[in-house]
Design goal:
mainly alpha; single chain; 8 helices
Amino acid sequence: MKKAFRQFLRHKGAVVGTVLVLLFVGIALVAPAIAPHDPLAQDLVHRLEPPSRAHLLGTDDFGRDVFSRVLWGSRVSLRLGLVAVAIAVVFGGLIGLLAGYYGGWFDLVGMRVMDLMLAFPSILLAIVVVAVLGPSLTNAMIAVGIMAVPQYARIVRGSVLSVRGLEYVQAARALGAGMRGSWDGRSCRTSGARSS
């Protein structure tokens, strides 16, 4: 663990990226405490003002403080990103894992469905999902997550296929290790090494 942490500290890009992510997450968490104005409060008298001490990033068409709106908006953006990526990782990872491990018809059908999803423009696919589920922030998160499922499925499937061909995996299978529904379609029960 210490060795990995030291290697992480040596990588400047990783350190800077981690600091920025933690900074944005921290800002999103404390936005209600540090926002100087109500992000929804309108003040038409002071609309479209330039940056000033009262309004650090100026005001918009309705006189709302842009800086406060950015702080509060970061909470929505962070939640949208986390939920969408979680959906893509869980479903895409599961499909890719099963397709790479079992192969056969599941791999064929699953990857063709992923190819079909990749063939559609992402924005069109998102519009279809939102049209079916209805317009809301939650459904937008689901739509963005579904759009990313094929990429994760293909990445995980490729990783499983590469590990499947490694020598230690082949050696373990030759010794009898495995589980019902192996890669080549044969059924083999979980077992340890064969006794001599």
